[in-house]
Design goal:
Layout: E1 15-16, H1 27-37, H2 48-67, E2 75-78, H3 81-99, E3 105-109, H4 114-125, E4 129-133, H5 143-155, E5 160-164, H6 178-185, E6 191-195, H7 207-210, E7 214-218, E8 229-233, H8 259-295, E9 302-303, E10 319-325, H9 329-338, E11 341-342, H10 358-362, E12 371-377, H11 384-408
Parallel strand pairs: 1-11, 3-4, 3-5, 5-6, 6-7
Antiparallel strand pairs: 2-8, 7-8, 9-10, 10-12
Helix pairs in contact: 1-8, 2-8, 3-4, 5-6, 8-11, 9-11
Bound molecules: pyridoxal-5'-phosphate.
């Protein structure tokens, strides 16, 4: 396990359990970042400093490609997962409809991140025929339902431009059948994208073997710096850029490359790849202890999404998603925060906008009244003491949150 930069606080005053929102920087990533940030040079400049910056970028590109079993020419640097998703969705649709105006079909799932769902909704306003596939009650989308949605569009005379299915869900951590979908659709000439932002750290990913054409990754979810990501893009995929400028990154993402962030990304992903197997087993043990402990509190907690104890096949190793009927989500979060537990109600990427999660709704649970959610996500800085602290806090905060909800409802 890499040495965490955030040393466990001896007073246990803050317990960081929000690794799905962002991870603490790994020491390797910080060292590579600060080393590169101390140097000058635009990677597009032709003088010595520029060439040195370019060499660092290309070395990092090769190391990132190796970590995801991709070719270096398939690595397109972006500002993060959101931009990678937007380039994939909007760029493929623009290119496909330019070549064939009937190819207006877009298939994705109801549990995608907003960075996928929002651009898809924009395409709908521009004439796209959209099919949103709901998951099973497990929070896992059935591959056959995705291919059925494609067949449905094709029968209606609509060509399918794009299928987008996330690798792992950011709220409930469920792992989706991306390879099965890619295999089923391989011969149909449909571009397949996967948002692998949450999976890039914990899951071993081979871009080559996955069968997908495009894959979004983000560094700050795997121990690297914020504001840098990658779109892995097969060379034969037609993509229109969404930003115009100097033509950097195969013309797909213009803008001066953030050399230090790219160096930090490469260092982080190498450390994560080196430690993945041991770290995954360690996190599965912590995750299971936290889920089993929470269920053992006898507070009517429900685990959101598939969970097989001891396994990282259907659920990310560090994801704990607890549904707590009878309390308002915000008050449970506030109480946990006051108790020193930094968790989340779901996606941190909704920019603080309150409202019930579309992922929770997609699970189809029959829940009346207020429903609290505690997404507690473990990562490289987590240990057994964090699990104990979280369980103690849940035991006291849930009854308090329920009492507050009852007062609010006037009961
Ligand atoms: C599944 C998923 N996709 C996309 C994003 C957006 O990534 P970024 O924060 O790098 O823009 C996130 C962030 O939480 C995510 O979890």
């Amino acid at each position: 396990m890499p040495t965490p930069l955030i040393e466990p606080d001896p007073t246990r005053s803050r317990v960081y359990l929000d690794h799905a929102a962002t991870t603490p920087l790994l020491p390797e990533a910080l060292a590579a970042f600060t080393d590169a940030a101390a140097r000058v040079g635009n990677a597009a400049s032709l003088h010595g400093s520029g060439r040195a910056a370019r060499a660092l970028v290309e070395d990092s590109r090769e190391r990132i490609a190796a970590a995801f079993d991709a070719h270096p020419s398939e690595v397109v640097f972006t500002s993060g997962g959101t931009e990678s998703d937007n380039i994939a969705i909007t760029g493929v649709y623009a290119a496909r409809t330019a070549a064939d105006p009937l190819a207006r079909g877009v298939v994705t799932s109801t549990i995608e991140h907003h960075a996928v769902l929002e651009p898809v909704e924009v395409l709908r306003t521009r004439g796209a025929e959209v099919r949103l596939v709901a998951p099973e009650g497990t929070g896992i989308v059935d591959a056959a339902a995705v291919t059925a949605a494609v067949a449905d569009l094709e029968q209606a005379g609509v060509g399918v431009a794009l299928v987008s299915l996330m690798w792992a869900n950011n709220e409930i951590g469920t792992i989706q059948p991306v390879a099965a979908v890619a295999t089923a659709l391989r011969e149909r000439g449909i571009v397949i994208h996967s948002d692998a932002v949450q999976a890039g750290g914990p899951c071993p990913i081979s871009f080559r073997e996955s069968g997908v054409d495009l894959m979004s990754l983000s560094t700050h979810k795997l121990g690297g710096p914020m504001g840098i990501g990658v779109l892995l893009a097969a060379r034969d995929v037609a993509l229109e850029p969404i930003v115009q400028g100097g033509g950097h990154e195969r013309g797909l993402r213009s803008g001066t490359l953030p050399v230090a962030s790219i160096a930090g990304f490469a260092a982080a992903v190498e450390a994560v790849t080196r430690d993945r197997a041991a770290e995954s087993s360690r996190l599965v043990r912590l995750r299971d202890a936290l889920i089993e402990g929470a269920l053992g509190l006898d507070l009517g907690i429900i685990v959101g999404g598939a969970w097989t104890p001891g396994s990282a096949h259907d659920r990310l190793p560090g994801n704990v998603h607890l549904i707590v009927p009878g309390c308002e989500p915000d008050s449970l979060m506030f109480l946990l925060d006051t108790a020193g537990i930094e968790a989340s109600t779901g996606s941190a990427c909704q920019a603080g906008v309150p409202g019930r999660s579309h992922v929770l709704d997609a699970l189809g649970l029959d829940l009346d009244g207020p429903v609290g959610v505690a997404r507690l996500t473990l990562g490289h800085s987590s240990g057994p003491a964090d699990v104990e602290a979280a369980l103690a806090a849940l035991a006291s905060c849930i009854p308090q949150a329920r009492a507050a909800a009852a007062v609010g409802a006037g009961t």
